[in-house]
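Researcher: Last one for today. Full complex below.
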Amino acid sequence: MPAHWTKETALKGRGHRSLGRRWRRVSTRSVTGRGPSRDSTGAVIGRWDPAAAARNPRKVSASCMGRRRRRVDRGAAVGALPEAIAALSRTLPAGPSPEIFRRAKFDRPEAAPALWQLLFRVLSPLSANGASAPAAQEAQVRVVKSELHSQGYPRRALAQLPEDGSQGSRELLLALAWLLARGPLLERLLAQTRVRLGDEIPLCECEALARPGPPVPRVEADGPVDIRHLQWLMGKLRFQWRKLITSQQEQCALLGKIHSYTRGCHSDRSLGHLSVAETELLRDAEGGQQLLRRLESENVRLEAALHWRRQELVFWRWMDTVLGTCPPEASQPTFVPRIPERGAGEWELVARELQALQEELRGAAEPRRAAWEARVGGWGPEWSAVQRASREAVGLELAALQRAWERGGAAAQPHGPCRLVKSDAGASGGPGLRAAQVIEVLRSREACLEAVLCQLQRQCRQELARLAGALPGLIWILPPGR
Amino acid sequence: MLPADCSRRLVAELRDALDACAERQRQLERSLRVSRRLLRTWEPAETPAPQPTPAPETSGEAPSPESTPSPQDLKELELLTQALEKAVRVRKGISKTGERHKALSLKSGSAATSATTASAPSRASGQASCQVSETKPPRGIQQTVVPARGLPECRLLSVGDRTRMGRGSRATKPGPGPRDQQIPPSAALQAPEAFTLKEKGILLRLPMAYRKAASRNSRLWAQLSSTQTSDSVDAAATAKTQFLQKMQMTSGGPGSGLSAAAVEAEVGLLRTACSLLRRRMEEVLSADPADCMQEYRCLLTLEGLQAITEQCLHRLQELRAAVVGQQLGPWPVGRCPGASLPCGGGTDPIWSPQLLLYSSTQELQTLEALRLRVAMLDQQIHLEKVLMAELLPLVGTQGPHWLALCRAVHSLLCEGGERFLTVLRDEPAD
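Model: Here's the assembly. Have a good evening.
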């Protein structure tokens, strides 16, 4: 009988026996095929045996019912762990039963496939949704391994697990706990699959970037291409953007109409009118039923998440014990990956930019410093106080500048998706952003970006002029409109 | 021709950009389809059915057509069409004859308006006329009792038709037949079936089940997003950090704590840093210092910016060393490192959407156009940097077709591919 079970439950008087029964009761629903146990229900508590439980349902249920009635007095500790785990798996997509978790602690192989699948769904939710067929076991294992590694999972044992997904349930359990501990995993998963009831517009692109579309299978151009091919691609891109902008304008006009036509129909006064999804729900009864179902299942998951939050302490204490059962790791690194070009290219770009900037700053600052020193050489002590004040002021400004990117500048920009609501001008007191404000912010950002683009183009022009100037005997006529 | 590896990289970048654009277009098309369908006439099978709740709630709320017309209704509607067509014909005939019938009609009109009896000279279409008058007007919203005009009206008029009294909620005051001759019978017939958002959108009501589920949903999201500190929450947070520390310790080797994802995020931050520093530098350089003090401050600012830039470069080198030396593994595939993340993604994320109020369609269109323009500029800047990095070195080395290459590169890099320059050979005239 593992010691930690008694630690958890001994305080409550009934002891381990009740926990064994509790586990049995919870897990009767998920009976897996197993060989005949060597003992009947009452005696062996540490090993739960579904076959035996199935054989003696009356005895189990009777004892459970008795237990259940008395469980109320005992307090929460007894059933808390399976309950917490059940809440957790209700929140997760493809969450396995608490029994799988318990088996994973003892590194049982039958628990591994479910945990591989769970981790796959958690780490790459998009491919699970969009894929026509579920990925093969090896592919899932590979994706999970690489994703965990890129996020910095510290234990190397995971990388050594076989690709057929038959082993390693304890390691996977640790990986799941690690992901849960690091950040708001559940909230993020729920937000990704959130049912969208309103007409939403993303204010910043971070969501679009964090969720790239399914990778398009594309035949790469192997051979060298002519530069005209590049020009053609650029032209195509420009045209696509123009088309996109016109379609978007049309969509806005339609949205405006739908919002005005359904004024006053919404039960929520702050919204006032129906959204496209809600109107569609009224038009198409079947689609509406589906939406309702999805909404209700999301509600179930949200409630499970809140339940989990209240009870997760028990889970973390249990995970400490799981970690305790693992053997310590050897210190040999086994992962020898290659760095693909694209990542390195990104680094190159930034490095180049910073170096160019540094050159320019040096070129600007040094002559000024020299000129200044020459001027100020003999000035008196009252000057030094002023100098100090200036230094402090500039220091503060630069510190503020540094904070702007270190914190990501999130405070400055409106963030996240927004639900569009048409309301007559004058609602200045209520919650929510105003379109006029957002337009201002976007305009300033547009101006910024245009300035950057112009500056880059100017740089190119200078560079090309320099290169072309090496060849005499040619006249370069710039295009009109400059 | 460009060298193979350069071509591959550039084509890949451009195709990525095209794919991103195409994805947006696809989503937009989907939304457009849905919106257009909503604004058209809704099919009869799709008209919103009145709630199975007691009639008082739905009277005047639900749009008048029932979900499926019964066979009896259909038969009656047929008769209705016939009667209406006849009415139009007769009225045309009547109006031609002029005064004589007018006198007659006035007399019968007075009788008709007060009549509750359908004591019209019974005709074969008597039954139909009752139905005609009852079902007019089609909408059941606006009724005007127009004084009967012309002979046919008194036949058509039957106030408080007995057979139709039962349909309580649609107790419409029967008016005479088509009041204006402009309403063609066919349209009047179709009208009970058709539902358009424009005309009857304000009558829609959301089903109760949906309302409950939606309010519960928003309540739960609000609860989930609220970060309240209570004892249990704090204890859980400490337990989590302890667990992470133990994990780190039991894994082999100390590790630098840096993951590939973290490195990528930092590189992104440094890219933002670079652009912010550059912007500040340009501000300082373009400002004209008015006096000594300002000059001094400009100098200090420039030197400060220089120091920060060096720090950033240093950090970048450290990151590079971490990636290479500690074998942090491949950069995650599928994430496009292109555009900059001004929001530093993930800082205090908002889980459920907030409201964005707009007042007119023009405002919304401006907003969307600006948003797309910002995204397009982001992409253009990224492409510009990539193209610069790949193409400028090629121009530096003079190969065959150098002039053509130069001209093409100039147009791509300096004009966004929209305009071309002209190159003339300057031959001495001798």
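The first strand of chain B starts at residue 41 and ends at 42. Residues 50-67, 103-191, 329-347 of chain B have pLDDT under 50 and may be disordered.
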